[in-house]
Amino acid sequence: MSEWWNDVELWLIQLSFPLQFTLVMAILLPLCVVVAWAIDRVVDYASARFGTSRDETPLGSRPETES
After folding, report:
1. What pLDDT score does 51 carry?
2. Which domain holds residue 42?
3. Residue 17 within any structural domain of the chain
4. Domains in the chain: how many in total?
5. CA distance 42 to 48
6. What is the DSSP string of 14-54?
7. I want to staple 15 with a disulfide (CB 3.0 to 4.6 A). Which of 5, 7, 19, 40 is the partner?
8. What is the phi/psi pair of residue 51, to 5°?
9. pLDDT bucket at 2, cuts 50 / 70 / 90
10. How many Å is the maximal CA-CA distance in the chain?
């Protein structure tokens, strides 16, 4: 089973660096985007599911000052 992977690895190693870089980016960039999207969805779901306490103020909010 690992024989085909060894052939692919040998083929990739023998390519010039610009071609190696292009192939790796063509595979890793979309993969990283999908993983980042999935992590974002999981965090959004978890934060919506567990919510915030009514006593806590959101991180980005400013305290109201009376003028």
Report:
1. 75
2. 2-47
3. yes
4. 1
5. 10
6. TS-HHHHHHHHHHHHHHHHHHHHHHHHHHHHHHHHHH---T
7. 19
8. 65, -170
9. confident
10. 75
pLDDT digits (tens, 9 = 90+) for 12-66: 899 999 999 999 899 999 999 999 999 999 998 888 888 766 666 656 666 666 6
- Whole-Å CA distances, 40 to 16, 20, 22, 59: 36, 30, 27, 18
Residue type, 43: V
Residues 6+ apart with CB under 8 A from 57: 63
Say if residues 59 and 53 touch (Cβ distance below 8 Å): no
Its pTM stands at 0.56
**58 assigned to some structural domain:** no
Do the domain assignments include residue 54?
no
The amino acid at residue 35 is: V
> Please, are residues 23 and 12 in contact by the beta-carbon 8 Å criterion?
yes
